[in-house]
Amino acid sequence: MPHQYHFDVTMTCSGCSNAVNRVLTRLDGVSNVDISLEKQTVDVTTGDSLDYDTVYNTIAKTGKKVNSGKTIQ
Amino acid sequence: MPHQYHFDVTMTCSGCSNAVNRVLTRLDGVSNVDISLEKQTVDVTTGDSLDYDTVYNTIAKTGKKVNSGKTIQ
């Protein structure tokens, strides 16, 4: 079963959202990344083995503020 | 002996430079961070035990492009 995780992240320009996109697409087990700078949202689809905390920590290490996050599936 | 490291990093807004500043000031052993958005530079002063690679990797994990880096001291 794939997972879907949703995060609300403060991103102020396309450089910010590109940075988040870059670290997530580099992460093993990520199958899709959908980022909206307008909505300040990051949606990540992963394979079975990639857990919420790993995805959360990867985003946190960008230095962006993660305002909330949840597992959709 | 403290170390001084210099990096050229692509940062396109203050959200970008704040993110880099945030991850570096969180890093154990960092004594000073000086970031110029205008010059696209990141200067880091650390204690004896913090090596170049650790600082480099911390910046790289922000997802920003590190165009070059060097040890000043």
TrEMBL record, chains A, B:
Record-linked CDD domains: HMA
Keyword entries, A-Z: Chaperone, Copper, Copper transport, Ion transport, Metal-binding, Transport
Domain HMA, first and last residues per copy: 2-67
GO cellular component: cytosol
UniProt-listed InterPro entries: Copper_transport_ATOX1-like, HMA_dom, HMA_dom_sf
GO molecular function: copper chaperone activity; metal ion binding
Gene3D superfamilies on file: 3.30.70.100
BP term (GO), one: copper ion transport
The family this protein is said to belong to: Belongs to the ATX1 family.
Protein name: HMA domain-containing protein
Organism ancestry: Eukaryota, Fungi, Dikarya, Ascomycota, Saccharomycotina
